[in-house]
Amino acid sequence: MDSAAQTFPPRVMSIKLWPPSQSTRFMLIERIIKNLTTPSIFSRKYGLLSKEEAEEDAKKVEDIAFATANQHFEKEPDGDGSSAVQIYAKESSRLMLDILKRGPVLKEDGEAIISERAAAKGTVFDISGGRRAFIDAEEAKELLEPLKDPGNLFTKICFSNRSFGLDAARVAEPILMSIKDRLTEVDLSDFIAGRPEGEALEVVNIFSSALEGCDLRSLDLSNNAMGEKGVRAFGSLLKSQKHLEELYLMNDGISEEAARAICELIPSTDKLRILQFHNNMTGDEGAIAISEIVKGSPALEDFRCSSTRVGSEGGVALAEAIGTCTHLKKLDLRDNMFGVEAGIALSKSISAFPGLTEIYLSYLNLEDEGAEALANALKDSAPSLEVLEMAGNDITAKGAASIAACVATKQFLSKLYLAENELKDDGVILISKALQDGHGQLSEVDVSTNSIRRAGARFLAQILVQKPGFKLLNINANYISEEGIDEVKDIFKNSPSMLGPLDENDPEGEDYDEDAEENGDHDDELESKLKGLDIKRDE
């Protein structure tokens, strides 16, 4: 047969998302522990768990969630596992919330007690479990029946993941009116999914009017693609809120006009501690409107305005407004188009956050100049910083020097994410040197996609493997030679789970110099530089 006439079937790539790796499972446990031991509105009401109790509960939560998701996966083994992943995440979140609302407990026979549902206390009414679904009037009557019990003590309702049509909304209306005086938390995220705009707006109006006048502490309206019309349809509810502590408006189509409407409708945000606007189309003008809300929120502790299409002008406005929030603990501005100017503006506000523990500044087009300004500002503030993320900002070895000086002062640092930059070996070794002394709480470092070669990877690995609490190093998608990969694996031979996947490493990448690798010239040159390297630390 003529070889030119041969045909081959196309290659079909199948990516399995389930089961998760051990490192992924461990990372989830760590996140649950952090949530269970971090002071919050729940801990003030129910008490704060000790680290020991949180660790025990977190492992139980993850085990239960994994078993539940795995049982689902076994029923559909030909799938890619995406539905199992969703169940894993949702079940973990549900069980973790149960524990937060349960608070610390006495142990019986050495075992911590995990309640089946927080609703056992009679304070939470949650219909979000199960498959995302439309509900009609009959189903609404059945689902909401417990709310009609005059003896119920529900203070929180969660209608998320259930799409209400007009008939179902009319069933809910009198029930909500009867209990609104005792409600403190309302979650209406993703409750009109798939409905035509006209019907969705009528449903929103019904819920808004029914809940008008309730004195909420937490309101979640995320994942409703509202836009300005939807925001104004919630006007009755928003206008009556004077004591909100938490407001979530993620993935809501918050445009410039919608942001202005929010600013106009909410009468007071002086008690607001959490404000989240993730994944909207806010833009610069919308960011300027949001900055007015921020200025009126002096108690703000957690501000998220990531993936909101904000450019330099809006970034500067947000940076200046954030400077008034002296209680800020968590700041997430990822995936915007700030640029250098907004980065420098933000650096001028950093000193106002002495209690900052987490800062997410990835994909902001900071470049060296903006990254240096922020790193220098952080170096002299935020002594308890635990998470620093500056991935995807075109940071080179020049900017790495300032980051290294900053990192050297952060002895509570747990996670450092610097992926998708241009640090190369010189920058990575500078940062590695900064991590050499102390940093006993460091658990994760990500310097993937940084054009790193053998010397940088090896030096970083040698330092991190010695950290007592270290969990995961990601050096994937770099230019590490095969010899370098073998060396790194040997460094982690006693704890291979600490080393992330290396399937995207390219030993013959664009920066690969075969002669230099064979002769060790590059390694020797870098190692000679290290002899005189010193990262200055504040006394």
From TrEMBL:
Biased composition (Basic and acidic residues): 527-539
Keywords, comma-separated and alphabetical: Cytoplasm, Nucleus
SUPFAM superfamilies linked to this entry: RNI-like
Molecular-function annotations in GO: GTPase activator activity
Keyword Cell wall biogenesis/degradation: no
Superkingdom per UniProt: Eukaryota
Region called Disordered, residue ranges: 496-539
Coarse class of the protein's main subcellular location: cytoplasm
Domain WPP: 14-108
Regions of compositional bias (Acidic residues) in chain numbering: 503-526
Gene3D superfamilies, A to Z: Ribonuclease Inhibitor (3.80.10.10), WPP domain (1.10.246.200)
Listed InterPro entries: Leu-rich_rpt, LRR_dom_sf, RanGAP1/2, WPP_dom, WPP_sf
Pfam families (UniProt xref): LRR_6, WPP
Gene Ontology CC entries for this record: cytoplasm; nucleus
PANTHER family in the record: RAN GTPASE-ACTIVATING PROTEIN 1
Protein name (database record): RAN GTPase-activating protein 1-like
